[in-house]
Structure to design on (279 residues):
């Protein structure tokens, strides 16, 4: 290699180092997993609401290794459950709040239209009225699994998430029909069949993150082609699994502080220039 070529090559390395001094920001995605169970104080009677506590069960980050997450959620997340059914008005079309009770960790709904609390009506069911549970979390979560603790006859469920911005129970749930939910901020996540054939649970695969989720006995929402069968479903909805996702992009280093790779390129280029000039 001639001296001229060495000079050119060394200059190229220095130029590459200078170009590399602009820090390429890396965004880290952190996923935190939670398991929500019904609090113990919701047994033995019917209640207007029941509390749940979500405990963090693990976490992951991509790419790894990564710096500590400054946006990490708390180790526990709280939620409140309320029961709902289409019992409002003479036509029994619109939603009205009912009551809840926990049976060995699984929630059943007693609707407001004089429903008996004997089995199997003590569960969350779609026999006569369509019963659902509204889960309100103190921060947005992505539901990943629904468990049931008991079923009779069949165990199909329907899951919706509120994605319409600011939630107001009086505007976005109470007094609406199930058919009107999808035009009032709710998104159908899916219908899930035969949980009793899958170890009493179903995975929920969705990219939706919301603080409000509606889970109930299978419900076509007034839509055709839902694929649901006509049998009655009686389930007690138990633990929920969920995930919270955060992102963090560390700030670039201060001006004038090059990355280690940049220093190496500068050093190699300077060394080649010095050797070339001595010759």
């Amino acid at each position: 290699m001639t001296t001229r070529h060495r000079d050119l090559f060394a200059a190229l390395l220095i130029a590459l180092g200078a170009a590399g001094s602009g820090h390429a920001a890396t965004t880290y995605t952190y996923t935190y997993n939670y398991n929500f169970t019904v609090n113990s104080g919701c047994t033995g009677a019917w209640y207007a609401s029941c509390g749940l506590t979500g405990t963090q069960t693990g976490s992951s980050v991509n790419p790894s290794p990564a710096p500590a997450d400054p946006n990490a959620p708390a180790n526990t997340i709280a939620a409140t459950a309320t029961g709902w059914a289409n019992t409002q008005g003479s036509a029994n079309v619109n939603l009205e709040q009912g009551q809840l009770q926990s049976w060995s960790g699984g929630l059943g709904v007693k609707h407001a239209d004089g429903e008996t609390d004997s089995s199997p009506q003590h569960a969350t069911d779609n026999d006569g009225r369509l019963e659902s549970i509204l889960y309100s979390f103190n921060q947005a979560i992505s539901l990943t699994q629904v468990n049931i603790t008991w079923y009779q006859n069949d165990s199909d469920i329907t899951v919706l998430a509120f994605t319409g911005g600011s939630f107001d129970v009086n505007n976005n749930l109470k007094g609406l029909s199930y058919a009107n939910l999808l035009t009032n901020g709710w998104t159908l996540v899916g219908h899930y069949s035969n949980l009793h054939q899958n170890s009493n649970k179903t995975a929920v695969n969705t990219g939706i993150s919301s603080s409000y989720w509606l889970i109930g006995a299978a419900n076509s929402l007034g839509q055709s082609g839902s694929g649901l069968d006509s049998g009655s479903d009686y389930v007690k909805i138990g633990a929920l699994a969920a995930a919270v996702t955060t992102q963090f992009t560390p700030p670039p280093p201060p001006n004038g502080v090059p990355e280690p790779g940049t220093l190496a390129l500068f050093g190699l280029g300077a060394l080649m220039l010095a050797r070339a000039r001595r010759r």
Notes: The chain has three helices and 13 strands. Residues 8-21 have pLDDT under 50 and may be disordered. Residues 171 and 184 are 8 Å apart (CA to CA).
